[in-house]
Automatic annotation (TrEMBL):
<protein>
    <recommendedName>
        <fullName>GNAT family N-acetyltransferase</fullName>
    </recommendedName>
</protein>
<dbReference type="InterPro" id="IPR007434">
    <property type="entry name" value="FemAB-like"/>
</dbReference>
<dbReference type="InterPro" id="IPR016181">
    <property type="entry name" value="Acyl_CoA_acyltransferase"/>
</dbReference>
<feature type="compositionally biased region" description="Basic and acidic residues">
    <location>
        <begin position="377"/>
        <end position="387"/>
    </location>
</feature>
<dbReference type="Pfam" id="PF04339">
    <property type="entry name" value="FemAB_like"/>
</dbReference>
<feature type="region of interest" description="Disordered">
    <location>
        <begin position="377"/>
        <end position="400"/>
    </location>
</feature>
Length: 400
């Protein structure tokens, strides 16, 4: 693409994907299920992302000189910080203490999903660079306080940093498939105490007469989905909160993107008692939603993590992301992984203060990763052929 082509590009705001029916950006987004047209449209059409929920669609669409779509940035005008999984409430309080408005802000993310994926979705690197800069111009035009790009991939992160965004680090726990022959081979790769703990937990669940059934895509019936949704709601109700997503959203997602959905249903003598929904795309599985109708010791970990790992091994899926936070996942074989967000703050004095905060926070995140490094669940061969614990070093810090 020539510099003249870049100059002739135009960026527009789109407040509903219904106004863009023929634009399918999946080829530019590694088939990530959380930013697919089916996922984002289901969010909008069922009211999960709306002005009423504080997630008003404000997408950036990039057109070339022939008026053909060249790029897309899933953006929302946010009036709260709910459903984001990157916590900036302290920043909002700081603005308020100085009599300034933090909301609305612009957010680029997969709604309600702490999942890394493409955020500058375009046909080439020049178009992605244009999107990163154009978002700042849009923020200035709308006079919002800030832009927040959550869980971008590393390729996007580099472009965002160059465009003037600050980078923040966090930690999640992901499981990687080392071409395990079966689940026992995975257990054999763990240290003795971790292997013993997992087996004990699984035995307790089995002794409670619990068995598991996997259902993917068109195998999922309306009754299955209804049961899952009741479990999903229970998880929120137990915490005194209202669910973010509606049953209509899940029904529409099943209708338009069935192969992205996997239900793990826990049953006692054929009666379902708990359920986890995972999402699948691009040889990755993502643990997302869970709930139960009764408490059974060990059932949460078995349903959400061990059964997920079993499925990945059986179907050759390379990576299982276990969701936000949760160092308890380390003992189940999920390793710490640095995740990122990128932030642009309109007011220079606040930008300077937040930049200093992020520098200090990065030091603590790296120290936390170093501490986790010392508590590996896996074994390695020492010089005498014995097994001892190790953990891959954390990915480079944001200064690199």
């Amino acid at each position: 693409m020539s510099s003249e082509d870049v100059k002739n590009m135009q960026v527009e705001l789109l407040h509903s994907l219904a106004d863009l029916p023929d634009f399918d950006w999946r080829a530019w987004s590694d088939d990530n299920p959380f930013i697919s047209p089916a996922f984002l449209r289901a969010m909008e059409e069922t009211g999960c992302t709306s002005e009423e929920t504080g997630w008003q669609p404000c997408h950036l669409i990039l057109y070339d000189h022939d008026r053909q779509p060249a790029g897309f940035m899933p953006m929302y005008l946010k009036t709260n910080s709910q459903g984001e999984f990157v916590f900036d409430m302290a920043w909002a309080r700081a603005f308020s203490q100085y009599g300034l408005e933090y909301y609305p802000k612009l957010l680029c993310a997969a709604p309600f999903s702490p999942v890394t994926g493409p955020r500058l979705i375009a046909r080439d690197i020049q178009a992605r660079q244009v999107l990163a800069r154009a978002a700042i111009e849009v923020a200035r035009r709308l006079q919002v306080s800030s832009i927040h790009v959550l869980f971008p991939e590393k390729n996007d992160l580099a472009l965002l940093r160059t465009a003037g965004y600050m980078v923040r680090e966090s930690v999640q726990f992901h499981w990687k498939n080392a071409d395990y022959a079966d689940f026992d081979a995975f257990l054999a790769s763990l240290t003795y105490d971790k292997r013993k703990k997992i087996r004990q937990e699984s035995r307790k669940v089995a002794q409670a007469d619990i068995t598991f059934e996997y259902k993917r895509g068109k195998q999922i019936t309306a009754d299955d989905l209804s049961f899952f949704f009741s479990c999903y709601c229970n998880t929120y109700y137990e915490r005194g909160r209202h669910p973010y997503l509606s049953e209509a959203f899940f029904c529409q997602l099943l209708q338009h993107a069935p192969d992205s959905l996997l239900l793990v249903i826990a049953q006692r003598q054929g009666t379902p008692v708990a359920c986890a929904m995972n999402m699948i795309g691009n040889n990755k599985m993502y643990g997302r939603y869970w709930g139960a109708h009764e408490y059974i010791p060990g059932l949460h970990f078995e349903t959400c993590y061990m059964q997920g790992i079993r499925y990945c091994i059986a179907h050759g899926i390379a990576l299982f992301e276990g969701g936000a936070q949760g160092e308890h996942k380390l003992s189940r074989g999920l390793l710490p992984q640095t995740t990122y967000s990128a932030h642009w703050i309109a007011r220079p004095e606040f930008a300077d203060a937040i930049h200093r905060f992020l520098d200090e926070e990065t030091v603590h995140v790296q120290a936390y990763l170093d501490e986790l490094h010392e508590h590996s669940p896996f074994r390695k061969q020492d010089e005498d052929g014995k097994q001892e614990a190790t953990l891959p070093r954390p990915v480079p810090s944001r200064s690199e």
